[in-house]
């Protein structure tokens, strides 16, 4: 079986001198199927070519002994600003749109800093794919999925766009604090469209933007001839919204309050668009309705303390209750500790906490691998261990959701990374302090 798979891969144009690696003897969690005791995963070049209990390593393969260890797909943190926001206090390192309220044409991945200091630290903890999402506007723009490889941003790009980011929470975009926002920050595309000041206005403006995009798609000639009716966004923004109106791209809508989640479900039905809830602290209250409406949720499991009145019903078994009802979920950070940038690496602890609050171990692993890959349309490449999949693979010293566990081998697209982050350098620097002279 291995020989046929490898021959087919080479025939497809792989470099004949590419390395072959066999990870042998570990407990393999393919995610899309049952775990495999004493399993083997074979990687050739950038892809997985064999997975199973009775796979013989090919001659000449580099062998990684994984006895007593766990092998999983690389983890997938679905909602981050990794590479977009480097230094919080320095505006020049932020990646948001400075002016437009509806910035649908903003493509966040084109501003990724591929040499971000946080990439190595994140990859070192077994995260191999991330969603990078814009922020700071009512309609903030388009997000993408990146694999944490070396290279420039275009080489890291797995797929973009994967969703249109928006929020109905008035503190979620510039202009939520009208007293401090400048005229430039609160002006819209034509300088006269302020951001919505309430949730009701936010949903009304979303409907208007969707309607404008549909009108524009059907009347481009009239628009070009200057015979257009008044539209609430720029041409480029309306063009970017068309895939959302056609259901080809989801609307990633930040909403925590149960009434906002309810309104989002109705928006999806009435406008015939795909909606993915981001945050969803009170989403558990509407779990059956979310499942029936096929609305996925990106939520965390670390926090049950109401940070605002929007989260009075927050609970740490939110994801558990959503999954029991059949809602498609992906785990994201919600602990309030910079989980979107510096601590994007901590997504595995979010999964461990979800297990502590009732989610099965298999479901938690799915929620940080195949779950987000499915939501963002990249499950044909990442999220599982199977022949033909890209080789994003991690060998763990133990249970990946335990604090004491280390990622011992991390492969991204078939290349093994042995990162040394700034944290490692600090540990080495202060591991052996000189004795003080009394």
Number of strands: 16
Q: What oligomerization state is this entry in? A: single chain
Order of helices and strands: HEEEEEEHEEHEHHHHEHEHEHEHHHEEEH
Uncertain segments are 4-17, 173-192
Q: What does this 3D model show about the protein?
A:
The chain has 438 residues and is α/β, with parallel strands linked by helices. The chain folds into two domains: 2-73 and 395-425, Urease, subunit C, domain 1, CATH 2.30.40; 75-382, TIM Barrel (Alpha-Beta Barrel). Helices cover 28% and strands 21% of the residues. Strands 1, 2, 3, 4, 5, 14, 15 and 16 form an eight-stranded mixed β-sheet that branches. The protein has an eight-stranded mixed β-sheet with strand order 6-7-8-9-10-11-12-13. α10 links the parallel β12 (296-299) and β13. α5 runs parallel beside α8. The radius of gyration is 23 Å and the shape is globular. The protein starts with a helix and ends in a 7-residue tail after the last helix.
Write the layout of secondary structure elements.
Layout lengths: L1 H10 L8 E9 L7 E9 L2 E6 L9 E4 L4 E4 L1 E6 L36 H8 L2 E6 L6 E9 L5 H4 E11 L15 H4 L12 H20 L1 H5 L10 H11 L5 E5 L2 H14 L3 E5 L7 H6 L3 E4 L18 H7 L4 E3 L15 H10 L4 H7 L2 H6 L17 E4 L10 E6 L2 E3 L4 H10 L7
Parallel strand pairs: 1-4, 1-5, 6-7, 9-10, 10-11, 11-12, 12-13
Antiparallel strand pairs: 1-2, 2-3, 5-14, 7-8, 8-9, 14-15, 15-16
Helix pairs in contact: 5-7, 5-8, 11-12
Summary, kept brief:
The chain is α/β, with parallel strands linked by helices.
């Amino acid at each position: 079986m291995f020989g046929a798979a490898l021959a087919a891969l080479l025939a497809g144009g792989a470099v004949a001198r590419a390395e072959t690696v066999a990870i042998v003897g570990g407990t393999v969690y393919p995610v899309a199927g049952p775990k495999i005791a004493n399993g083997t995963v074979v990687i050739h070049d950038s892809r997985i070519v064999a997975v199973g209990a009775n796979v013989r390593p090919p001659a000449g393969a580099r062998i990684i002994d994984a006895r007593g260890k766990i092998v999983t797909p690389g983890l997938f943190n679905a909602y981050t600003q990794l590479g977009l926001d480097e230094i919080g206090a320095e505006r020049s390192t932020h990646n948001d749109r400075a002016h437009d309220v509806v910035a649908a044409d903003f493509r966040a991945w084109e501003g990724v800093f591929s040499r971000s200091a946080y990439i190595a630290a994140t990859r070192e903890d077994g995260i191999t794919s991330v969603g990078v999402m814009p922020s700071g506007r009512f309609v903030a723009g388009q997000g993408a999925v990146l694999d944490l490889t070396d290279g420039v941003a275009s080489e890291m790009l797995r797929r973009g766009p994967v969703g249109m980011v928006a929020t109905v929470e008035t503190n979620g975009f510039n202009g939520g604090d009208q007293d401090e926002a400048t005229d430039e920050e609160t002006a819209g595309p034509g300088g006269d469209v302020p951001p919505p000041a309430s949730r009701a206005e936010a949903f009304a403006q979303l409907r208007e933007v969707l309607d404008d995009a549909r009108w524009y798609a059907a009347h481009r000639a009239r628009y070009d001839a200057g015979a257009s009716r008044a539209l609430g966004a720029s041409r480029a923004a309306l063009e970017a919204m068309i895939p959302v109106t056609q259901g080809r791209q989801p609307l990633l809508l930040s909403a925590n309050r149960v009434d906002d989640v309810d309104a989002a479900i109705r928006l999806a039905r009435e406008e015939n668009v795909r909606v993915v809830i981001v945050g969803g602290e009170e989403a558990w209250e509407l779990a059956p309705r979310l499942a029936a409406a096929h609305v996925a949720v990106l939520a965390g499991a670390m926090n049950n303390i109401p940070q605002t009145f929007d989260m009075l019903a927050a609970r740490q078994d939110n994801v558990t209750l959503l999954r029991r009802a059949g809602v498609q979920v992906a785990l994201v950070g919600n602990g309030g500790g910079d989980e979107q940038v510096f601590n994007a690496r901590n997504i595995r602890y979010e999964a461990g906490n979800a297990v502590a609050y009732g989610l099965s171990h298999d479901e938690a692993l799915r929620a940080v691998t195949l779950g987000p890959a499915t939501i963002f349309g990249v499950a044909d490449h990442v999220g599982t261990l199977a022949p033909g999949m890209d080789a994003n693979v991690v060998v763990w010293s133990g249970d990946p959701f335990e604090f004491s566990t280390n990622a011992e081998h991390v492969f991204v697209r078939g290349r093994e990374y042995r990162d040394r982050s700034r944290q490692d350098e600090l540990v080495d620097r202060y591991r052996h302090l000189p004795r003080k002279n009394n």
